[in-house]
């Protein structure tokens, strides 16, 4: 088993007034050669956007972009013709493919929105862009792991990569485990709230831990805990 730990306070920071962002991996003005990606996971940003503000129209290509609102709501517009509002308990997936323009704004004029912005490198390049959005019942992740993104679709959003996103909400002192889908994959676990022991390591709010070269990862919540688990293929350059 191999692990890498990123404590919350070591993340990159950007405060633009309307945006208060924390970057787990190199992004924008935050560049750290030791923290460029974890396997095919390229970006994990924890963004707080002021009321009515947001990211204006800009381009992307050949990236799988997942947005998960933690509080508040996002308004999405893109060149494919979608205009959507994404709220808590919903997950958004945009396959940028051979090119797409989009904007993401705080839908509220009164409250901030806090969301996770995650980028995964695609399995196949230059596909036709695609947009997906789905509501997931939080009861289905009470003391269990709830799949929300996967390569096969079905009950999850379908990603253009052999990657799997899951959410879990656990009461204190709850024990479970996460079983990987492939020996070639690793899992990056982001602690949204609470405290948890991951493979023997104690992790706290907004900490992250990457684990690979293992088939099953033991988890034990030390308090009421919310987790995001991102399983991705590992590459030589991704072994940070």
From TrEMBL:
The keyword Transport does not apply. InterPro entries: Pirin, Pirin_N_dom, Quercetinase_C, RmlC-like_jellyroll, RmlC_Cupin_sf. Its cofactor is Fe cation. Residues 12-120 form the Pirin N-terminal domain. It holds the Pfam family Pirin. Keywords: Iron, Metal-binding. Signal peptide: none annotated. Binds 1 Fe cation per subunit. Gene3D superfamilies: Jelly Rolls. Fe cation binds at residues 58, 60, 102, 104. Residues 148-232 form the Quercetin 2,3-dioxygenase C-terminal cupin domain. One of its GO terms (molecular function) is metal ion binding. PANTHER family: QUERCETIN 2,3-DIOXYGENASE. Belongs to the pirin family. This is Pirin family protein.
């Amino acid at each position: 088993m191999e692990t890498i730990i990123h404590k919350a306070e070591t993340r990159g920071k950007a405060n633009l007034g309307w945006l208060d962002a924390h970057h787990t991996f190199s992004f924008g003005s935050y560049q750290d050669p030791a923290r460029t990606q974890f396997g095919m996971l390229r970006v994990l940003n924890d963004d707080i956007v002021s009321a009515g503000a947001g990211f204006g129209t800009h381009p992307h290509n050949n990236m799988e972009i997942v947005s998960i609102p933690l509080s508040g709501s996002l308004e999405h517009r893109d060149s494919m013709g979608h205009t959507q509002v994404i709220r808590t308990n919903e997950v958004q997936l945009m396959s940028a493919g051979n090119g797409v323009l989009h904007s993401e704004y705080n839908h509220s004029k009164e409250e901030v929105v806090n969301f996770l912005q995650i980028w995964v490198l695609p399995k196949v390049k230059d596909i036709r862009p695609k947009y997906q959005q789905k509501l997931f019942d939080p009861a289905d992740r009470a003391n269990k792991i709830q799949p929300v993104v996967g390569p096969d679709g079905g009950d999850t959003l379908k990603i253009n990569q052999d990657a799997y996103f899951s959410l879990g909400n656990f009461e204190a002192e709850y024990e479970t485990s996460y079983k990987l889908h492939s020996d070639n994959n690793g899992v990056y676990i982001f602690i949204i709230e609470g405290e948890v022991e991951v493979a023997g390591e104690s992790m706290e709010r907004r900490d992250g831990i990457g684990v690979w070269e293992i088939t099953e990862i033991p988890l034990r919540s030390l308090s009421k805990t919310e987790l995001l688990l991102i399983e991705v293929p590992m590459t030589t350059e991704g072994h940070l």
